[in-house]
Amino acid sequence: MSVDLLHFNPGPQRIVCLTEETTEWLYLLGQEQRIVGISGYTVRPRRARDEKPRVSAFLSAKLDKIMELQPDCVLGFSDLQADIASDLVKRGVQVTIFNQRSVAEIFSMLFQLAAMVGEAEQGARRIAQMQAGLRAMQAAVADRVAAGARRPKVFFEEWDSPHISAIRWVSELIGIAGGDDCFPELAAEPLGKNRIIADSTEIVRRNPDIILGSWCGKKFRPENVAAREGWSAVSAVRHQQLFEIKSPDILQPGPAALTDGVQKMHEIILKWMDADQAGAFAK
């Protein structure tokens, strides 16, 4: 029986996702049957952990396990997974590494992946829905500002020791949600080591109105933040405006950050704006 040398599969059929955001997006697109392996850090969607084998952490992967799954595409994120990608390429595996750092780049990644699996139209529709939600947030903030409300200064702490400030997509989403990032000059730095704030007194000096903690999977402890030496005078500490945003909701550059993560920040910020305008933080 002859083999049709012209036949090809429309898009990858056996995908390994080394990070959570591509897994979540493929599930949302109804293309989870293409996934054969996921990251051990995946929690969105929850069912993925029960349905798919876990083959990687963030900086390491079980290469032999991945090869056993016979993937025709491995999806990864950023230069931090370059070594994993290199090892897989040397073994003959097709690897796509996305490097999205901004909100616009996240949308671009989502569209590219949707197109890869033949769901460009659905992907564009879902992206438009997310963009509409973000624009509604901007409008709600603009209405409050027009009525005399003040935008809060927000310190987003990605790690506690040393202090690491918000990466670019988080900083941009803070702005969309209604706040102003206290360290916008650091947001463009893709690596956490370049967003370290070595002198904590600089955070105190910038006096954030709200502190949001998302300690990369470690539970945020507002009482520990409030107890830091010299922080008692910080507005967010004085008025108990310290909140956790779960890492899977905001630190994965994919659907979660653009929906649940930013929504939680938006709710916190709007509540602060309303309270501030009512004089709750006057003292």
Overview of the structural elements:
This protein is of the alpha/beta class and 283 residues long. The protein has two domains: 15-99, Nitrogenase molybdenum iron protein domain (Rossmann fold), CATH 3.40.50.1980; 123-277, Nitrogenase molybdenum iron protein domain (Rossmann fold, 3-Layer(aba) Sandwich). Helix content is 44%, strand content 13%. The chain is built from 13 helices and eleven strands. Strands 3-2-1-4-5 form a five-stranded parallel β-sheet, with helices on both faces. The model has no long low-confidence stretch (mean pLDDT 96).
Count of individual beta strands: 11
Task: Let me know the CATH homologous superfamily of the largest domain.
Answer: Nitrogenase molybdenum iron protein domain
Overall morphology: elongated
Q: Output the strand order for the largest sheet.
A: 3-2-1-4-5
For the residues shown, what is the average pLDDT?
A: 96
Query: What can be said about the biggest beta sheet?
Result: 5 strands, parallel
Q: Structural class given helices, strands, pairing? A: alpha/beta
> Helicity level, as a percent range?
40-55%
The CATH topology of the largest domain corresponds to: Rossmann fold
CATH C-level name of the largest domain: Alpha Beta
**Helix segment count?**
13
Spans of at least 5 consecutive residues with low confidence: none
Query: What is the helix/strand order?
Result: EHEHEHEHEHHEEHEHEHEHHEHH
Portion in beta strands: 5-15%
Named CATH architecture of the largest domain: 3-Layer(aba) Sandwich
Distance between the termini: 85 Å
Radius of gyration: 21 Å
